[in-house]
Amino acid sequence: MSLNYLPEHAENARLALALAKKEMAHLAYTHSTLFSKTITLEWVKSLAEREDLSEKIDAFVSRFGRLQDHIGEKLIPRFAALLGESPKSLLDVLAYAEKVGWVNSTAAFVGARKLRNLLVHEYMTNAVLFLESLHAANAATSMLMDVVDKIEQNAKTLNLKP
Q: What's this model's pTM, rounded to 2 decimal places?
């Protein structure tokens, strides 16, 4: 039986995927509760008085950023190593992931990273920009989850046991 991957990288890849799936589940929960209602400019402006909504925003932004970081810094690099590649910078990692079909667009992934910064820094200062960023992050969440799903599918194709 021949392997289509480097077995010395299998455990790190498995662990990275398991953590990504856990982080994705937490983000999915927060995402579904946050976006269960329509988010409007009035809703954003009410955040100053609504501690419960502010906590939801904080949880979403934290989980959004954590999954993003994990995908770019651990999951993709470890699966690339599993397949014999060793991209160095985040842009190299993303370019490789786009080439193999895990990421649809490097630019979209980088854009999602910029969104996180806007969600953190524009939270209380610019309601319109924050609202736009929140709606963009809503769509970007699906993109992040899609990356994890594609890498999980690749792990199954490689017969990489959980």
A: 0.94
Provide the pLDDT for residue 66. Answer: 97
Compute the distance between CA of residue 75 and CA of residue 24 in angstroms, rounded to an integer: 12
Summarised one tens digit per residue, pLDDT across range 32-57 is 999 999 999 999 999 889 998 989 99
- Amino acid present at 11: E
The two structure tokens encoding residue 83: 């397949």
Give the closest residue to 137 by CA, choosing from 110, 119, 154: 119
Cβ-based neighbours of 62, under 8 Å, separated by 6 or more:
none
Rounded to the nearest 5 degrees, what angle is found at the Cα of 105, between the Cα atoms of 13 and 112?
Answer: 85
Summarize the confidence of residues 47-73 as an average pLDDT. Answer: 93
Provide the angle, in degrees to the nearest 10, between the axes of the packed helices 127-157 and 51-70. 40
CA distances from residue 67 to 27, 57, 98 in whole angstroms, order as listed: 8, 15, 18
3-state secondary structure of 50: coil
Contact 148, 75 (CB under 8 A): yes
